[in-house]
Amino acid sequence: MEEDKGCFHLASFIDQKDRLRISRVPVVQELARQGLHYLPDKFIKLRPDQPTTPSLVHEVNTFPSINMAKLRLGSEPEGRAHELAKLASGAQEWGMFLITDHGMPADVLYDVKDVVKEFFGLSFEEKKASVGSYANVDNMGYGRNFVKSEDQPLDWIDRLTMKAAPEGATEGLHVWPQKPNNFRQAIEKYVKESRKVFNDLLEALAESFSLERHVFVHYFHHKDSEVNVRVNYYPPCPRPDLALGITPHTDASALTLLMEFDTTGGLQVLRDRKWVAVPWPRDTLLVNVGDILEIMSNGRLKSPWHRVVTQMDADRFSIALFYNPPSRAEIEPVRINATMEHEVYKKVALRDYLQHFYKINPTSEKQAIDFAKVQ
Ligand SMILES: O=C(O)CCC(=O)C(=O)O
Ligand SMILES: [Fe+2]
Q: Residue 352: inside a domain, yes or no?
């Protein structure tokens, strides 16, 4: 059977000899539609002795879940102190946590799911006509991430990436789907709501470490902080034991807010050198720490090494909002006492860090962040 039937994304990369190359990457959704019973070689990521099945999760009950209403200033003091302590220990231990009572209106979340499903329900031709594909422009558009060579094993995913903030970030670029016609509006409403959640969490995290409340959030002005949106679509995969939806990575954000549907399950995090399935109940949002907050917190918080596995009989969508200071900002690790605290990270220009991150990834272990370490 022909593998891609002419449906492919174009991904450009710089090869070993510094030449710009364009690679044709099959559209996974189209492969899945053909009902493949085997996994094309270029998607084989795992050897049979490295199964995707996570080790049994004993910690399910201890996975952090934070009630955001209790964190708000003015809520009952004892409950608030307890929630702050839970946030500090949960975020330090796992680098990710569930959030409940976040105040995000249900219709906003519903509309996001709706437009995303409608977009991925379009034919490949309609999708391509609806949105551009920009392998070169900050990974935006309808296409793929982290393609770096012709022979690199590929993730079992199609994705859509947009910059939702600051305003005007995608002006002149055709990166927002035109179809469904309320796509951009639905996502922008979600992004607007997410800012409150992000800012509240950044303040609460600072407070939970007994730092001044604004030490993190002061980098994030409404008019120039950045929110990148990545919509991930994982179609059913013929060999979940050999493929990955997303290769192991950390996020190049301060914080990432994740929503998932239609199926739950797939996200795994490395803990004590074992892959653990993240216990993520339906309709709950999940937050994870990215490299930028690891640097800003001088390593108090650690960005988790995570990956996504695929499923044989189910589609799964996730939407990641990546929250960052403006890329021209210089980020500096917080110090409680400049002379006392061991300096793990140094001041870096965010733009330089991101450039480095995208240049070296994907890597086989957490590595990009070494760029910002004090030698
Ligand atoms: O699909 C997921 O659950 C996680 C996605 C993710 O890690 C990412 O987009 O960076
Ligand atoms: Fe991620």
A: no
